[in-house]
Fold:
Amino acid sequence: LNIHDIISSGLLELYAVGLASPKETAQVEEWIKLYPEVASEFEKIKSVSIELGQANVFIPDSELKERLFAKLDSLEQPSVVSIATSEIKFRNRLKWVAVAAAIALLIGSTIMNISLYRYNKDMQFAMDIVQSKYCQPVLLPGMSIAPSASAKVFWMKNTGDVYIDASNLPTLPPGKQYQFWATVNGKIIDGGMISTLNNSSKNKIQKMKSFDKAEAFDITIEKEGGSPTPTKSQMIVMGRT
Amino acid sequence: LEIVKRYSEEELVTCLQSGDREAFSYLYDTYAPILGGVIYKMVGERELTQDLLQEVFIKIWTRFNQYEDSRGCLYTWMLNLTRNHTIDVLRSRGYKQRKMIRGDENSVYNISDDHAVKERFDTIGLRKLLQNLKPQQRLLIEMAYFNEYSQDEIAKTLNVPLGTVKSRIRAALMELRKNKS
Structure:
């Protein structure tokens, strides 16, 4: 099949209007990747396809967008699937506190971390959080496994949004990752993974899962990708709200 | 409606991969009217269109990794997702029941429903864009772009071979390109 045959096959048009079968779709996508001429031809066809769409627009109610984003927020809330009860003990810096807790087992739900903003944007972003009148800072001091470690949580009391500054946590070996937890009504709830893929992301303020209320926040060292329940011997920092 | 190019497709994809809400907001502003137009053509009801549009955008957000795997054309991917989701709902039992109940309860509705169907094929912008096409090409574009027909179904409905569907869609789009320039 030469370039001319591909272009005159009609498949590019079919693909552009969304009518190609899965097999044809895969074929066209491969052609576009392989041949620049096909790619540029497809760009022209695509713009006609978009123009067709633009000739027939539907203007949704403006509230629809708000509803959509509210829905996305609710999807990103952690979902408790099953609860196993067992007694576990937590320790804070000054004393041992026995906390009877049920452990919430969480399935799935990966977290969207705020990532890859440019430096200025990062700065502005961080300042906006820290300076917000609703921001409640929570210091998480180092536990016995790393007394010099620390982390700071910025907890927005109006929205429940939780941001974390993890820059004072030690760098982890490959395969390990920090996981954030919140204690809510005596239950330990997954708060999301802290991104430490590279130094720069660790040094940024990261958004965790939101909590309307919590008695304490802590961070444990877990295997990469996280664990359903915290490994208590690996708790590195912890602080009460 | 002119698309303001604030992000290139590549930038948009990169931002969406990292879960950037701002980019998603831009994606919504840019494509919701177009994808909504496709849904509305298919279902003809404003409220249902809005519900479906919201579901489609949630799918775009939650299933973005599926797009990343193919790395094809973002617009085509969204168009397919929109059409497939709408077809699924149109063909679902719940929707059919809902339509039947309506038909039973209020026969007047049927008349206005037919009227709405007619109107659906009469958007001014679309009529203007398609005015220079042959009637046969126009029908094909309506079927291909704004209806729940697959290639096979179009071929069967028009009683032509599959290859002819391809070549006619190509001819129609070529014609539109010519008119554009």
In short: Residues 12 and 42 of chain A are 6 Å apart (CA to CA). The first strand of chain A starts at residue 80 and ends at 85. The two ends of chain A are 67 Å apart (CA to CA). The longest helix of chain A spans residues 36-54.
